[in-house]
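Please fill in the sequence for the structure shown.

STRUCTURE ENCODING:
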C-alpha cells in the first residue's frame, strides 16, 4: 500500500529526529553504546496473486447462517433487567416453539423430559441446563444472557445469547454443536469443538453486529491443541437459579 505524503513526511521527520538524538548521545559518550549494524534487511515481498483471470464464484460453496435474531414469545422482561428472566422459562419457550426439533420424533426429543428436572423438586443432576452467564455483549451497557443446554439424546450442546429490547427478550445467537468449551472474550463468544483429526479443534468466533443487531459469525479456525486431548464437555449446573457471572 502506498504511503500517503503526510504520513511519509511525518515518518521522515521522526526518523531524522531519532538519528540526531542517537548521534548526540554517541558523541557525548564516546564509542560506548554506539549503534551497531544488524546486517542486511530482507527485501519486502508483496503477496503474489495466483490465477488473476480466474472467474469469481457466483454463489457460496455452502450456506452458513451468519446471524440469528428473533423475539421470544411469551416472555416479558419487567424493568428490562434480563436477570429477572428465569433461564428455565427461556429454554422451555424454545422447546414449545420448535416441535420439529423437540417433539417425539425430533432429533432432540429427550431434552423435553430432561428439562422437567430443572424445576424445583426435580433431579438436578439430570437437568440439561448449564449455568447462565451475564455480560454485555451488545455494547449497550446492560448485561445480556448467555445460555447453554445439552441436546439429548445427541452429544450436542445448544448455545444461545439473548438481549432485551423494549421489555422483549430477543435471541441474537443460536448455534448447536458438539462443544468442548465456550469462552467469552470481551464482546465475542468463542466456541471450541472437536475436529476429526487428533490434536486439533475448531474454534468459531461470534461478535455483535450493530447493523444486523445480532451476534454474527466472524471467524472459523482449525487449530493444533497439542497432545490430542480435548477439554471436558460442560456439565449441567446443579441449580439453574444459582449465582451467575456479572458483566466485566
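FILLED IN BY: designer on duty
SEQUENCE:
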Amino acid at each position: 500500500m502506498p504511503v500517503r505524503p503526510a504520513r511519509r513526511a511525518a515518518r521522515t521527520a521522526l526518523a531524522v529526529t531519532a538519528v540526531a538524538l542517537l548521534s548526540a548521545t554517541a558523541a557525548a559518550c564516546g564509542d560506548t553504546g554506539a549503534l551497531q549494524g544488524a546486517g542486511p534487511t530482507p527485501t519486502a515481498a508483496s503477496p503474489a496473486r495466483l490465477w488473476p483471470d480466474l472467474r469469481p464464484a457466483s454463489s457460496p460453496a455452502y450456506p452458513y447462517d451468519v446471524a440469528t435474531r428473533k423475539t421470544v414469545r411469551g416472555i416479558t422482561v419487567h424493568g428490562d433487567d434480563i436477570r429477572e428472566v428465569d433461564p428455565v422459562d427461556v429454554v422451555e419457550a424454545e422447546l414449545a416453539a420448535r416441535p420439529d426439533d423437540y417433539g417425539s420424533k425430533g432429533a432432540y426429543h429427550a431434552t423435553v423430559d430432561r428439562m422437567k428436572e430443572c424445576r424445583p423438586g426435580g433431579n438436578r443432576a439430570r437437568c440439561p441446563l448449564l449455568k447462565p452467564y451475564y455480560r454485555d455483549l451488545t455494547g449497550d451497557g446492560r448485561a445480556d444472557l448467555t445460555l447453554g443446554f445439552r441436546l439429548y439424546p445427541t452429544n450436542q450442546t445448544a448455545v444461545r445469547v439473548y438481549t432485551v429490547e423494549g421489555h422483549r427478550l430477543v435471541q441474537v445467537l443460536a448455534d448447536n454443536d458438539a462443544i468442548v468449551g465456550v469462552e467469552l472474550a470481551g464482546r465475542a463468544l468463542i466456541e471450541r469443538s472437536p475436529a476429526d483429526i487428533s490434536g486439533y479443534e475448531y474454534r468459531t468466533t461470534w461478535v455483535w453486529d450493530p447493523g444486523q443487531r445480532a451476534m454474527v459469525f466472524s471467524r472459523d479456525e482449525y487449530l493444533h491443541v497439542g497432545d490430542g486431548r480435548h477439554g471436558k464437555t460442560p456439565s449441567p449446573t446443579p441449580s439453574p437459579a444459582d449465582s451467575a457471572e456479572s458483566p466485566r
